[in-house]
């Protein structure tokens, strides 16, 4: 008996044809609704600044962003994640400029809602772009993070974005119990059925955020974020953080960064199969892949990575590659 010709051991017969192969890859397709595009919004309406550490990524004033989005929405873009950057508004200890009427995100939301009625608008909610000390929360007198005060402040900022027209508020600060505080703020203003909460539930203290912090000018002035972002080796804390955020009412969960954390994606999806799961392909990951330009090899590598993220359990991928992905997949549908 020759093992190599034994019928029950023939595997390749099931996928010799490309259509057969598709059937072997369930729930891994990359369609426009599986992609969310992060955008950097400046105060100056007409500004357009390339980000040197992130090829093909720009920081936009709202007028320039509207032009860029017009093109992308025509190509199928379904959702964006907005990050505000202040240059003339002052940074202070409590991040006051996060929710003043002059904040670029607050000013832009009504215009975006009107110009792109079908585009899903998510806002990153954090204090680090707006605090003088650069931390994601508020500091107490001894310099430690004050979670209670931070959570209260984060909920105020989330509510301001919700009132201005955000469909999704996405707190990335990692302060304890912020999801509950945000949900309560939405309920008390009767916005709970018009605004969804996407928690950066499993966010790790990664060294792959460097280009983003340069872009946002949001690095901490002293110390680091290891006391509130998760230790990269800890699957246990990630599971507890996701469970806590689900209990507090999070509508969607997130794992961040992406590629090195696919085990966390799979565990989180298995733990909460009924919550949409986002994965953030962060700036450092983008920079590593994008170095090859947009050659055919970069494109196939990128699509492979996205497929693997979907296989691991991600429903939506937040990625600076969104424009390239849309042009790759629009040729295929
Ligand atoms: N508020 C924190 C925040 N919001 C988005 C990113 C990273 C995104 C990226 O690297 O692309 C970070 C990480 C950090 O600075 O600690
Ligand atoms: Zn932050
Ligand atoms: Zn953030």
TrEMBL record:
UniProt binding sites for Zn(2+) 1: 126, 128, 136
Positions of 5-aminolevulinate 1 binding: 213, 225
Spans through the membrane: none
Cofactor(s) needed by this chain: Zn(2+)
Residues forming the catalytic site: 203 (schiff-base intermediate with substrate), 256 (schiff-base intermediate with substrate)
Biological or metabolic pathway of the protein: Porphyrin-containing compound metabolism; protoporphyrin-IX biosynthesis; coproporphyrinogen-III from 5-aminolevulinate: step 1/4
Classification via Pfam families: ALAD
Class of the enzyme per the UniProt entry, highest EC level: lyase
Subunit structure: Homooctamer; active form. Homohexamer; low activity form.
Family stated for the protein in its record: Belongs to the ALAD family.
Name of protein: Delta-aminolevulinic acid dehydratase
């Amino acid at each position: 008996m020759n093992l190599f010709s034994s019928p029950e051991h023939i595997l390749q017969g099931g996928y010799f044809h490309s259509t057969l192969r598709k059937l072997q890859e369930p729930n891994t397709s990359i369609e426009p609704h599986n992609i969310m595009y992060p955008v950097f919004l400046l105060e100056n309406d007409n500004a357009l600044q390339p980000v040197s550490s992130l090829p093909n990524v720009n920081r936009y004033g709202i007028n320039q962003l509207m032009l860029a989005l017009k093109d992308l929405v025509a190509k199928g873009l379904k959702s964006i994640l907005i990050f505000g950057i202040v240059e003339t508004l002052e940074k202070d200890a409590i991040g006051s400029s996060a929710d003043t009427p002059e904040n670029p995100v607050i000013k832009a939301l009504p215009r975006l809602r009107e110009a792109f009625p079908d585009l899903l608008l998510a806002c990153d909610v954090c204090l680090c772009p707006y605090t003088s000390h650069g931390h994601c929360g508020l500091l107490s007198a001894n310099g430690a993070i004050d979670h209670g005060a931070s959570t209260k402040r984060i909920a105020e900022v989330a509510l301001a974005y919700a009132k201005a027209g955000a469909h999704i508020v996405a707190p990335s600060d990692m302060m304890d119990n912020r999801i509950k505080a945000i949900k309560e703020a939405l309920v008390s203003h009767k916005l709970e059925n018009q605004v969804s909460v996407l928690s950066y539930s499993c966010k790790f203290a990664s060294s792959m955020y460097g280009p983003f912090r340069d872009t946002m000018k949001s690095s901490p002035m002293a110390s680091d974020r290891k006391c509130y972002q998760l230790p990269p080796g800890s699957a246990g804390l990630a599971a507890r953080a996701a469970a806590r955020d689900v209990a507090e009412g999070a509508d969607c969960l997130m794992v961040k960064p992406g590629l090195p954390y696919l085990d966390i994606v799979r565990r989180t999806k298995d733990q909460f199969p009924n919550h949409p799961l986002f994965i953030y392909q962060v700036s450092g990951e983008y920079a590593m892949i994008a170095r090859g330009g947009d050659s055919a090899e970069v494109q196939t590598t990128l699509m492979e990575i996205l497929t693997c993220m979907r296989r691991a359990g991600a429903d939506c991928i937040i990625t600076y590659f969104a424009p390239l992905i849309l042009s790759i997949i629009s040729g295929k549908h």
